[in-house]
Task: inverse folding
């Protein structure tokens, strides 16, 4: 059922317009142009559709308004929530003033007040794969991974809450030449008698960078040297370097082959790198309170065996073709062909896209996905367009027996920027390690919590500041428009005022404290749980309307894949609530009936807030 009166009014007035002016409805349901009224004496909402419609049909607007009212009068659903409409409802040039019936909001709220909070399970639950995290072996998680974890986890939680079946997939970059390169390095060290078990991720990452540098050493430098006519000595030195690079590249290729053949010694070293990386990665996810665990890992290596037969099939079916010795898929409307195998000269290897095409096949055809959602950096937009088009064309995106392909969506996110508006880096120009960022957030949150509440016992203070820090970091990431870049600022995200995680946590704590005070005083009992809700004054009405918007806000996140819509909703709810408690006494209400009604409003509000925060992956607190 629909809970939001605004939605009900829009739909019912749209339908009334369509009945009164069938021609106007030809292009789809007409927009009722519903707006809140500026002045409560004109009711709660107004329908402004008569004016543009009058132009279109060539009749006076007030007459058009009357025709809409006549059509609306026949609608029982509408009659259940609005005061009777009449000629007196028409104002000015043709506004239709609408007043909600005072019992209607109370009735809707009573129906809303169940554990489901208006979120009804889908008629046919879907299987939704959420691709999130996506770390790479031998590298620390950096600030860029924050979004892939936090947004992915929030979307997954939202779908779970709605009642879909969610499968999280951590597409770990754990295969290919770069990984083979660092594996080769460690292997060498091991053979030279070094104890590689002692290497932590920082050490492994250093080796990775060194290996990479050596490999791309200076093909580019050499080209430049020739171009700018450097002397023979410089050329000779560079050539030597490149030869070295060629050697290390050759070693990496051999290591990749050994890995592919499951050579035990090589494989054990690779496994070691994977273990060290994943231990740290999953620890950071756990710290963030994100549900990303070992069971969600489905790394690129898990597709390695499938690639050659898949590529052969694509060639056989005429989907992939040769181009300069490489194999490519050309898709209409996409500017660049998708390369799925390099030319023999280029090493003949498979690519990032090849694995992602295989992943779509597994996710749709084996895991049964109706929807696959990729929480990945916006800079990979072309990659996903290519991969989606290629997999769809190959039929890999269609479930066996299904008529149409599943929905493949790139929930692309923008970058995290530093104060200089450039990609967030450390002072020395390196990527910011995510765990360092979390450490700093915790330190700063501890100071803020100490200042706000010096009396918290130390253990609780620690727990509260950890929760505040994580809420701050996650909320900032979620509340910014997903597709846009945002500037990272500890001061802003940790503020207890404004659209921040700490503000919402605090707003919720304040509501909960009302119930603690009620319990201390005794008297209120919990009879209020069944008390009739009285929606009397403006503040109560606004709060009721805000609460009833909740299911719509959640639906819009599931549709748009934009968690910031839920953040915005929760922020507005918290503000509306704050106006309500400032103006309406709850425990000191004029009558017991009013107190109980308001306690029930408080309770629904705190449950909506806790439920909403849980979808964002933010754990609410009782005290702070
Ligand atoms: N490892 C990749 C990277 O760091 C992200 C993986 C995203 N997921 C995917 N299915 N491609 O860019």
Result:
């Amino acid at each position: 059922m629909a809970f939001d009166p605004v939605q009900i009014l829009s739909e019912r007035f749209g339908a009334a317009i369509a009945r009164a002016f069938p021609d106007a409805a030809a292009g789809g349901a007409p927009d009722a142009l519903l707006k809140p009224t500026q002045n409560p004496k004109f009711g709660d909402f107004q329908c402004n559709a008569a004016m543009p419609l009058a132009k279109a049909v060539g009749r006076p607007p007030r007459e058009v308004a009357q025709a809409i009212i006549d059509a609306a009068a026949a609608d029982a659903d509408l009659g259940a929530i609005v005061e009777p409409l009449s000629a007196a409802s028409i104002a000015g040039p043709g506004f239709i003033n609408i007043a909600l019936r005072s019992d209607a909001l109370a009735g809707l709220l009573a129906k809303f007040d169940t554990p489901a909070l208006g979120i009804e399970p889908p008629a046919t639950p879907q299987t939704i794969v959420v691709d999130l995290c996506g770390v790479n072996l031998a590298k620390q998680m950096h600030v860029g991974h924050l979004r892939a974890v936090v947004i992915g986890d929030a979307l997954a939680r939202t779908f779970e809450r709605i009642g879909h079946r969610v499968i999280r997939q951590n597409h770990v970059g754990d295969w290919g030449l770069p990984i083979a390169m660092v594996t080769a390095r460690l292997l060498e060290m091991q053979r030279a008698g070094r104890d590689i078990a002692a290497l932590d991720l920082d050490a492994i990452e250093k080796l990775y960078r060194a290996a990479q540098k050596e490999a791309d050493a200076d093909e580019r430098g050499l080209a430049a040297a020739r171009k700018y006519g450097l002397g023979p000595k410089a050329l000779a030195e560079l050539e030597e370097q490149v030869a070295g690079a060629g050697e290390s590249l050759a070693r990496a290729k051999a290591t990749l082959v050994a890995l592919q053949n499951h050579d035990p010694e090589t494989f054990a070293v690779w496994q070691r790198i994977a273990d060290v990386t994943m231990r740290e990665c999953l620890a950071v996810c756990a710290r963030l309170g994100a549900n990303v665990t070992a069971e969600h890992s489905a790394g690129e290596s898990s597709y390695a065996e499938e690639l050659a037969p898949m590529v052969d099939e694509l060639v056989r079916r005429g989907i992939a073709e040769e181009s300069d010795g490489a194999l490519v898929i050309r898709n209409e409307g996409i500017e660049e062909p998708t390369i799925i195998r390099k030319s023999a000269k280029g090493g003949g290897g498979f690519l990032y896209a090849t694995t992602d095409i295989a992943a779509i096949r597994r996710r749709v055809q084996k895991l049964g996905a109706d929807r696959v959602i990729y929480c990945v950096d916006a800079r990979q937009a072309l990659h996903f367009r290519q991969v989606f088009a290629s997999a769809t064309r190959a039929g890999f995106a269609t479930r066996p027996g299904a008529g149409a392909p599943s929905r493949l969506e790139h929930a692309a996110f923008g970058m995290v920027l530093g104060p200089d508006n450039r990609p967030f880096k450390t002072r020395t120009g390196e990527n910011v390690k995510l765990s360092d960022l979390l450490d700093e957030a915790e330190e700063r949150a501890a100071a803020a919590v100490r200042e706000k509440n010096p009396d918290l016992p130390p253990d609780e203070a620690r727990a509260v500041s950890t929760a505040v820090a994580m809420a701050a970091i996650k909320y900032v990431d979620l509340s910014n428009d997903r597709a846009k870049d945002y500037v990272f600022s500890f001061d802003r995200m940790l503020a207890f005022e404004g659209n921040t995680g700490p503000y919402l946590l605090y707003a919720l704590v304040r509501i909960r404290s009302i119930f603690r005070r009620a319990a201390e005083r005794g008297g209120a009992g919990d009879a209020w749980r069944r008390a009739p809700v009285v929606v009397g004054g403006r503040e109560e009405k606004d709060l009721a309307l805000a609460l009833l918007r909740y299911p719509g806000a959640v639906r819009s996140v599931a549709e748009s894949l934009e968690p910031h819509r839920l953040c915005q909703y929760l922020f507005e709810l918290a503000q509306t609530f704050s106006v309500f408690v400032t103006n309406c006494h709850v425990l000191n209400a004029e009558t017991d009936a009013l107190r109980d009604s308001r306690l029930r409003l408080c309770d629904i509000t705190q449950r909506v807030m806790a439920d909403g925060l849980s979808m964002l992956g933010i754990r609410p607190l009782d005290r702070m």
Remarks:
- Residues 131, 134, 136, 171, 173, 356, 359, 374, 376 surround arginine (CB under 6 Å).
- The chain has a mean pLDDT of 93.
